[in-house]
Structure formats: C-alpha cells, structure tokens
Amino acid sequence: MVFIITLLVSCQEKKEPENAGDVLISKHLVESNSSLLQNKDTGIKIIDFRKPDQFEKGHISGAINLWRTDIQDTSFSYGGIRAKKDVLETRLGNLGITNDDTLVVYDNRGSADASRLWWLLKLYNFDKVYLLNGGYSSWERMGGGITLDNPEIKPAEFSLPATNNAQLVIEREDLLRRLNSGNSNVFLVDARTADEHHGKTIKDGARRGGHIPSSIHIDWAEAVDYGHTYRFKPIPELENIYSRIGASKEDTIIVYCHTGVRSAHTTFVLTQLLDYKNVLNYDGSWVEWSYFVDSPIEKNLKSPVKK
User: Fold this and answer.
1) Residues 188/263, Cβ–Cβ less than 8 Å
2) Up-side HSE of residue 255: CA atoms within 13 Å toward CB?
3) CA–CA distances in Å: residue 49 to residues 3, 62, 71, 218
4) C-alpha distances out from residue 184 to 27, 191, 199, 243, Å
5) Which of 37, 71, 103, 256 has the highest count of CB atoms within 10 angstroms of its CB?
6) Model pTM?
7) Mind listing the pLDDT tens digit for each residue in 154-180?
8) Which residues are catalytic?
9) Domains of the chain, each with CATH number or no CATH
C-alpha cells in the first residue's frame, strides 16, 4: 500500500513501510518507486546533487542541479566548511525552492554527497528533505525516466528558521575541550578510509596525516552496497557494523571525515536508520583539525602519500 502524500510529509507514522516504495517516514529515506517521486506535485523538488557535468549527461526528469561547492563557505583558509544560512537561502531560492517544498536529494555515490545537503538543511532546521536510496543508478535500474532537458526555474523566496539545531554539529574548540575532559560517554568516529585514518594517505587540503586521538575507524562506505547498488545495507547489518563503536543509543558520538561530507553520511545512518540520539558532525573535520598545530594527532605509518 502506498501512503498518500499528506501522510508521507507529516512524518508522524513511525512503523516500517510494508512496500519498499514507501517512505521510511521517520528516517528521511525514499525508494525509487516512492510516490514522492511519481507525484507531479510542484511542491516536490528533486535535487540532483552531483557535479554539473554529470547532471548534463542525464538526470531524473524534473531534477534541478546543486553541487557541494554551491553550499560551501570559501572565506576560510581551508576548504569544505558549510555555507552560512543566508547564502544557502539565496542559493535554494534561486533554484525556485520555497519553504513549503519537500526535497528529494540524490547522488551516485551511495548518498555520501546527498547526505551533506541533508545534514546542512537539518542543521538549519529545515526538515522536509529526503535521500533517494541507491541514487541515480538505482533510479535507472528501476526504469525511471532519464532526461537531458532542464526544468524551467522561477526564482522564489526561501527562508530558514531563525535558530539552528545545535545538536547536529560540533566545532573544533568544543571537540578539543571534550577530548581533554576524559568523558568516557563520548565516542569519536573517523568515517574516512583506513589509509587516511592511519596517516598513509593525506588527501588534498590537509596539512598533516593521521587521525584524532581515540578515534574509532569505520569507513562510511561500509554502510552501503558500495560499487554495486549503492543502497544502504539492511538494518541488522548496519547495527552490527556500528556496534564496533561500543556506544549506547544515548551516548554522544562525534563523527568526522575529511571535510564533513562522509561524516554527514555516517550521521544520517546513525540518527535516521539506527536511532542514535546524540550524534554530532564535526564540520571542519580533518582539513581543519590538521590545519592547527595545537590539534593533537595520532598516526600509525611514517611515510604518508599525498593524494
């Protein structure tokens, strides 16, 4: 049974859907045959969150293009920091998005990039945003419509709530204080690759290799069928993967990666699929942490490789 659109948007129903096409309502995730994507309601906006050259080679019919560089603040000495609220309001408004719209976001990388936009909007207290499970490739496999045509865009007014959801983000200074406090109920998760975690690889933009002390390494890509369907793994598998943190659902978990993108994906998994209650995404992540000489680091290898 497919839920009617008013029920989909209300987010009041908590049980698992009987049909894979229905929205996992409390989890901000939709399948490619969801009625949200089949509905022609102009209040539903589909956002293709890939690089513009990928978008131009084909996209879901009606989708509008937005990319990570569109939602970044370039005023810092290091990259990847989130755009300020007024900048995001202008960007989304210029794409014809209004406060009343429901957004469905997709990429083609296991929702890692799309999760960044989901997290930023949730941080700014805009709740009507969903990820497309499996992204563009899943949509294609399901026989969804692909087009080269761009939709007509009429700029609109878009404004975000005055207050942010501070429970979704942590800044470097607060992270330093927490590390020094010795609080055993705070867990730190590194969502990067093993080579990055160990200091063997230093990605572009970072000044040093390694990881934040006491970090537990869980590569974000473990949560998806990476390289195949790009869909999120079943809940029991996710529970098993993230049980390695050793945290209860009530403990504080701080997640970081290179620039807060992959860690946004892990934040999505922990909060929306596994019901962890206190998960903070370190927005500056390794690029910022490695920039400051007073940021303590650990690494396991002596010969890092720049990438």
Assistant:
1) no
2) 30
3) 26, 13, 11, 24
4) 28, 20, 25, 16
5) 256
6) 0.89
7) 999 999 999 999 999 999 999 999 988
8) 257
9) 5-147 (3.40.250.10), 166-302 (3.40.250.10)
